[in-house]
Amino acid sequence: MDRVVEAYKKDIDRTLLRENLKLTPEERIEKLMELQRFAEELRRAGHQQREKK
Amino acid sequence: MTDFKGLLRCLSERRVEFIIVGGVAATAHGSSQLTVDLDIVYRRTSENIQRLVDSLQPQAPYLRGAPPGLPFQWDSETIRHGLNFTLTTKLGDIDLLGEIVGGGKYEDLAPHSISLNLYGVSHRCLNLEKLIEVKRAAGRPKDLERLAELEALLEERKK
Predict the structure, then answer these.
(1) Domains of chain B, with CATH numbers?
(2) Are the C-beta atoms of residues B21 and B39 closer than 8 Å to each other?
(3) Would you call A3 an interface residue with chain B, using a CB distance cutoff of 8 Å?
(4) How close does chain B come to A51, measured CA to CA in Å?
(5) Which of A4-8, A37-41, B112-116 shows the highest mean pLDDT?
(6) Is residue A22 less than 8 Å (CB to CB) from chain B?
(7) Are A13 and B30 in contact (CB < 8 Å)?
(8) I need a surface site. Which of A20, A27, B27, B132 has the fewest CB within 10 A?
(9) Is B122 near chain A, with CB under 8 Å?
(10) Contacts for A20-28 with beta carbons within 8 Å, 24 or more apart?
(11) What is the rounded distance in angstroms from the CA atom of residue B83 to the CA atom of residue B104?
(12) Based on the structure, what is the number of domains in chain A?
């Protein structure tokens, strides 16, 4: 397991983590909800596109 | 979409004793990965189970993924006879966990939790070190990438 985790770790975008660490926990959860909204919008748009075909 | 703020408010208004674990705990610690449900470990005392039932009652909790019409009674008896519940509610998805692999129950996890002020209320959240420990104990392939990120977060915090 350790080797797999270490392999994944090499590809972690640490700049993203450093930016997150500048936020408060509440701001991080707000950001998560924004991300959820965006993901849902993408799903809706994809679905709409498939319906058109 | 899950309204984390709304769910946390419901629970805190009824003074439910719980600890935030899983993806939202990871987010609170700085994870950048998307999660869609709120995972909590709740204290399994009679009083707390009743508070939990009362807190979510207005949000029409129902078993997630169950076929519509399947009988499901949301009351303290149901909670007492079960342990872990994956639910969908009007505010989104929530997992109620009586205990977790590698971490145990509320009383076991409480010493490894931190107090977080979220939306003006203090909530218990599993600390990063214990979150890593329980993810390792669970050993699920889907968690390995998240585990790597959590360990990287720990390294970043120590810098």
Answers:
(1) 4-158 (3.30.460)
(2) yes
(3) no
(4) 22
(5) B112-116
(6) no
(7) no
(8) A27
(9) no
(10) A20/B30, A20/B31, A20/B32, A21/B30, A21/B153, A21/B156, A21/B157, A23/B30, A25/B28, A25/B29, A25/B116, A25/B117, A25/B118, A25/B125, A26/B117, A26/B118, A26/B119, A28/B27, A28/B28, A28/B30
(11) 12
(12) 1
With CB atoms and an 8 Å threshold, state whether B156 touches A13.
no
**Size of chain B in residues:** 159
Chain A contact for B127 (CB, 8 A cutoff): no
B13: Cβ contacts below 8 Å, ≥ 6 apart? B55
State chain B's mean pLDDT as an integer.
95
Helix (H) or strand (E) holding B77: helix B76-81
Are B4 and B77 within 8 A, CB to CB? no
Distances in Å between the Cα of A42 and the Cα atoms of A45, B35, B36 are 5, 16, 15
Q: What's the whole-model pTM score? A: 0.93
Beta-carbon separation of A28 and B35 below 8 A: no
Assess B38–A contact: CB distance below 8 Å, yes or no. Answer: no
Which of B1, B32, B118 lies at the smallest CB-CB distance from A29? Answer: B118
Residue A17's domain comprises 2-52
- Name residue, tokens 């998307």: B34
Interface TM-score (ipTM) > 0.85: yes
